[in-house]
């Protein structure tokens, strides 16, 4: 049986801004169908890693390949779900228009011969996220959860091999967090899509996560949630005493007050007691 190539391949990667190194020596393969959570405090380089993978930020060292190609706009096998940001009520762009941009927003025009197929694919993507009832409404009139479902459809319409998610649950209530997480998980299971999910909220996605990449203090740890999200590993990373307790299927993190103020480990979404 032929071994599958990694969906994401990172080798010797480092990112620095002046004298400040966010991380270095990062070697990581993300398998097709794998769900990787990217965690860490503010300023640890989580979003910067996504920018590297999207081709918006150059590495200081090392290399990256996604779906067998370098990062950048030319790689159509990469989908992207941004943070949820409420749109102004004056925005008249419809949900169907937003989703369609995921199919051909990178080029001018769609061509008359492709219009019927385009409409079919847009409709299928909208149906896959359960947004048929409001997809033709102006985005500015939709709730944050409805807008985010449409962003998921936009990211999935191109049938990506790699799905990059930048805190897509931010500002969503618990019901919409679960709905968006389920949609992402359904896609990766159905199509073997690799998911890299940057988040401060680990608990809502904990049941989906295969591995964790935790970034802090210029260092990182990679492993299954139980291997990374424990007192010993986080204390080592934060260089101070951190307590990790599992209660009711959730992870709760507490640490020295100085560490919480400076590095904000509680922002990863596990409740601090």
Description:
- Helix 2 crosses helix 3, helix 3 (115-128) packs across helix 4 and helix 4 packs parallel to helix 5 (174-191).
- 30% of the residues lie in helices and 25% in strands.
- By secondary structure, the protein is α/β, with parallel strands linked by helices.
- The longest helix is centred in the C-terminal third of the chain and has 18 residues, at 174-191.
- It starts with 7 loop residues before the first strand and ends in a 10-residue tail after the last helix.
- The strands form three sheets. A six-stranded mixed β-sheet has the order 5-6-7-3-8-9, sandwiched between helices. A three-stranded antiparallel β-sheet has the order 2-1-4, covered by helices on one side. A two-stranded antiparallel sheet has the order 10-11.
- It contains eight helices and eleven strands.
- The protein has helices spanning 46-53, 95-104, 115-128, 144-156, 174-191, 225-228, 231-238, 257-263, and strands at residues 8-17, 20-30, 35-39, 61-66, 78-81, 162-166, 194-198, 211-216, 219-223, 242-247, 250-255.
Layout of helices and strands:
Layout: E1 8-17, E2 20-30, E3 35-39, H1 46-53, E4 61-66, E5 78-81, H2 95-104, H3 115-128, H4 144-156, E6 162-166, H5 174-191, E7 194-198, E8 211-216, E9 219-223, H6 225-228, H7 231-238, E10 242-247, E11 250-255, H8 257-263
Parallel strand pairs: 3-7, 3-8, 5-6, 6-7
Antiparallel strand pairs: 1-2, 1-4, 8-9, 10-11
Helix pairs in contact: 2-3, 2-4, 3-4, 4-5
């Amino acid at each position: 049986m032929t071994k599958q190539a990694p969906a994401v391949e990172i080798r010797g990667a480092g990112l620095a801004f002046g004298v400040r190194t966010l991380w270095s020596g990062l070697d990581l393969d993300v398998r097709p169908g794998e769900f990787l959570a990217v965690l860490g405090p503010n300023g640890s380089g989580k979003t910067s890693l996504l920018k590297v993978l999207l081709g918006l930020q150059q590495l200081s060292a090392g290399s990256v390949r996604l779906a067998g190609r370098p990062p950048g706009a030319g790689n159509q096998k990469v989908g992207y779900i941004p943070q949820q940001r409420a749109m102004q009520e004056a925005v008249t762009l419809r949900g169907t228009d937003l989703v369609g941009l995921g199919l051909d927003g990178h080029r001018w025009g769609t061509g008359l011969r492709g219009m019927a197929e385009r409409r079919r694919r847009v409709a299928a993507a909208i149906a896959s996220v359960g947004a048929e009832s409001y997809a033709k409404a102006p985005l500015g009139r939709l709730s944050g959860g409805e807008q985010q479902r449409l962003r998921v459809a936009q990211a999935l319409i191109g049938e990506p091999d790699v799905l990059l998610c930048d805190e897509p649950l931010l500002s969503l209530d618990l019901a919409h967090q679960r709905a968006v997480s389920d949609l992402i998980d359904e896609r990766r299971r159905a199509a073997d899509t690799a998911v890299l999910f940057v988040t401060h909220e680990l608990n809502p996605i904990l049941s989906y996560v295969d591995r964790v990449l935790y970034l802090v203090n210029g260092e990182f740890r990679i492993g299954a949630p139980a291997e990374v999200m424990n007192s010993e590993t986080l204390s080592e990373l934060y260089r101070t005493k951190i307590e990790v307790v599992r209660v009711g299927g959730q992870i709760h993190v507490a640490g020295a007050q100085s560490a919480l103020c400076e590095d904000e480990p509680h922002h990863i979404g596990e409740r601090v007691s």
